[in-house]
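quick q for whoever's on today - can somebody do inverse folding on this one?? i tried earlier but teh output was garbage lol. tokens:
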């Protein structure tokens, strides 16, 4: 599927003819930086969205040691999930900041996909840069994206990780698309309303300690600006853009 430049005003509407999604990101707060307004909309429509965090974000707050930050960030993510109506919020316990591509990660992701049986898998940008930013994307994000794409294929193959079948988890071939929010190679958009944006902002508010450590960062203005700009690009009021890869 051909990717579009971020200035392209002809992105396709994201197909919403599905009922179950699994949102997979590396850290607590990753989803809340833009994607949760769309999740709030989908939950309001009656769709089921579960969240899977690959790490506990224990290395994410400079002023809080990991043994304290990890449990704190887990609780903040669970609170954020409740705000948007996530069906479940689960954690895989890989180490924050040193995530490595490999069979252990692919197996764990494939296991979760087989357990949750989503039609759509959601995540955030794994490319080298975020749109309009010169800094390099976080290593964990860049590792997770390819592993997640591969795990969708692994979950569908009976003969990859056969031990999962021995656990009672049969191959799941039902994932139709993997969608990455905030990618510089956006192909699709999802529009949402003002109430959904407020819910998305509230979900990031739930990361109270983490956001307090980002001194001077106005996340409310950032989320509203990003949603408005994506809306303008796509002829709607508010939107989030995704790079969508067919499964």
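ok took a stab at it. sequence:
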């Amino acid at each position: 599927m051909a990717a579009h430049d971020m200035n392209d005003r002809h992105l396709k509407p994201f197909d919403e003819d599905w009922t179950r999604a699994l949102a997979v990101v590396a850290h607590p707060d990753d989803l809340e930086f833009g994607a949760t307004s769309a999740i709030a909309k989908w939950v309001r429509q009656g769709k089921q969205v579960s969240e899977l965090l690959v790490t506990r974000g224990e290395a994410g707050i400079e002023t809080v040691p990991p043994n304290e930050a990890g449990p704190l960030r887990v609780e903040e993510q669970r609170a954020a999930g409740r705000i948007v109506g996530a069906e479940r919020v689960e954690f895989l316990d890989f180490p924050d900041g040193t995530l490595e591509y490999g069979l252990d990660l692919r197996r764990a992701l494939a296991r979760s996909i087989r357990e949750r049986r989503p039609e759509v898998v959601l995540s955030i940008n794994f490319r080298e840069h975020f749109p309009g930013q010169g800094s390099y994307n976080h290593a964990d994000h860049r590792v997770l994206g390819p592993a997640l794409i591969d795990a969708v294929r692994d979950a569908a193959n009976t003969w990859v990780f056969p031990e999962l079948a021995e656990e009672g988890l049969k191959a799941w071939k039902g994932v139709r698309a993997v969608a990455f929010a905030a990618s510089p190679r956006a192909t699709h958009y999802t529009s949402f309303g003002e109430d959904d944006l407020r819910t998305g902002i509230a979900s990031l508010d739930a990361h109270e300690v983490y956001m307090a450590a980002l001194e001077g960062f106005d996340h409310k203005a950032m989320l509203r600006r990003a949603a408005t700009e994506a809306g303008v690009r796509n002829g709607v009021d508010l939107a989030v853009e995704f790079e969508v890869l067919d499964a």
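fwiw Helices lie at 36-44, 66-84, 103-116, 139-156, 162-166, 194-205, 208-213, 219-234. also The chain has a mean pLDDT of 95. so keep that in mind when u check it
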